[in-house]
Amino acid sequence: MQFNKVLDDVKLYEAGKPIELVVREYGVDEKDIIKLASNENPYGTSPKVTKKIQDIAKNMFMYPDDSMFELKEALANKFNVQSSNIIVGSGSDQVIEFAIHAKCNKNSKLLMSNITFAMYEIYGKQTGATIIRTKDDEHNLEQFSKLYKEHKPDMVFLCLPNNPLGECLDTKDVYEFLEEVDKETLVVVDGAYQEYAAFKDEKKKIVVDELISKFPNVIYLGTFSKAYALGGMRVGYGIAKKQIIQNLYKLRAPFNITTLSLAAAIEALKDEEFVIKCIDENFKEMKRYEEFALDKGFSFIKSYTNFITLKLEDKFISSEVAQNLLQRGIIVRDLTSYGVNAIRITIGSNEQNTRVFKQLEEVLKNLK
Ligand SMILES: *Cc1c(COP(=O)(O)O)cnc(C)c1O
Question: Which positions, given as ranges, span the membrane (predicted)?
Fold first, then answer.
């Protein structure tokens, strides 16, 4: 059967492996499995949110409030913008989809960093658009600038901080670049890990209301999946000037997040204390990974997120390391499909990380 030709060139997203698969394929006991492959919050969801969802479960027979009034009000408050500047999606993934489909067609060009979030390319190719990438793995604004002038792309993607590498540009440099960009170009600033970056280094912090008022062609994306520990609930959002939001809305199906998701996100915003505690712990634990890497002679990318990317140089092959860890019940992300010999490990809890170091130590010894 024939399908839309543009799909021939669309690759499938490779998600982090689920715990169920490791139980099934390697017979590891579920309680011994540590999943550090999808940058979830290892401390679980705030107990206040869990309780709220249990209370709200009785309302499941009803559609959620399609205006998402309360959630948008809470986000508007947090970011000092209007509700009309906000669109909520089933994960910020869906907002990326809306933005690309609203802006692009087969004649469009999308500019992004060489190694960055895979969904930009996937949604881009669904429209038949051309993908342009910088040469360096990490975000390099000089290269962005040069390619921008050369190709005049319809969209530019800045992942701040970047997944899967963890690096983050300084906001002042981003602003400088944005000054050069034509107002017809839609720039996506993906802030999936902004909470972490802003905590670690003031220079990386993005003030959203300032960003979108200075640059009316920018859409900022946030998610509840990482710092807010709601990956399973699928809630994300985009913030931009009204005209952008109104156009994205034309692609949205009604009730695009669930009654439970909506309640969970609203409640999560009331417990910022929990989020800060998790982030603080995250960076304490990250130090242990940095020390481990130094000790083993790997280089790592300085990370402003809840994961760390270890470059294995020519010492080991990342797919082998990941596979051996998997057999021991530890799920990490091999970055071979991104074209680098590296593994990305979500920073787990103290206890989880201790086990990771022990297992990784043994795996490396065996592979030597
Ligand atoms: C996790 C992530 C997202 C979106 O996640 P959702 O669960 O769809 O909200 C977007 N961008 C980056 C860079 C991410 O790492």
Answer: none
Check: CB of residue 367 under 8 Å from CB of residue 343.
Answer: no
Q: Is the pLDDT of residue 248 over 90?
A: yes
Q: Is 21 a residue whose pLDDT tops 90?
A: no
Query: Counting atoms of ligand 1 from 1, which one is nearest the CA of 93?
Result: 8
91 C-alpha vs ligand 1 centroid, how far in Å?
7
| Domains, in order of start, for the chain | 5-44+273-367 (3.90.1150.10), 47-271 (3.40.640.10)
Give the tens place of pLDDT for each residue, 24-60. Answer: 888 888 988 999 999 999 999 999 999 999 999 999 9
Rounded to the nearest angstrom, the distance between the alpha carbon of 13 and the centre of ligand 1 is: 12
First to last CA, the chain: 49
Cβ–ligand 1 contact at 192 (below 6 Å):
yes
Q: Which helix (H) or strand (E) holds 330?
A: strand 330-331
Q: Which atom of ligand 1 is nearest to the CA of 90?
A: 8
Which amino acid residue places its CA nearest to atom 7 of ligand 1?
91
Give the residue, out of 167, 225, 228, 234, with the most ligand 1 atoms within 8 A of its beta carbon, to mutate for a pocket test: 225
DSSP string, 240-307: --HHHHHHHHTTPPTT-S-HHHHHHHHHHTT-HHHHHHHHHHHHHHHHHHHHHHHHHT-EE---SSSE
- Residue 156 is predicted with a pLDDT of 98
Atom index in ligand 1 nearest the CA of residue 38 equals: 1
Tell whether pTM > 0.85. Answer: yes
Q: Is the CB–ligand 1 distance for residue 306 below 6 Å?
A: no
pLDDT of residue 27: 87
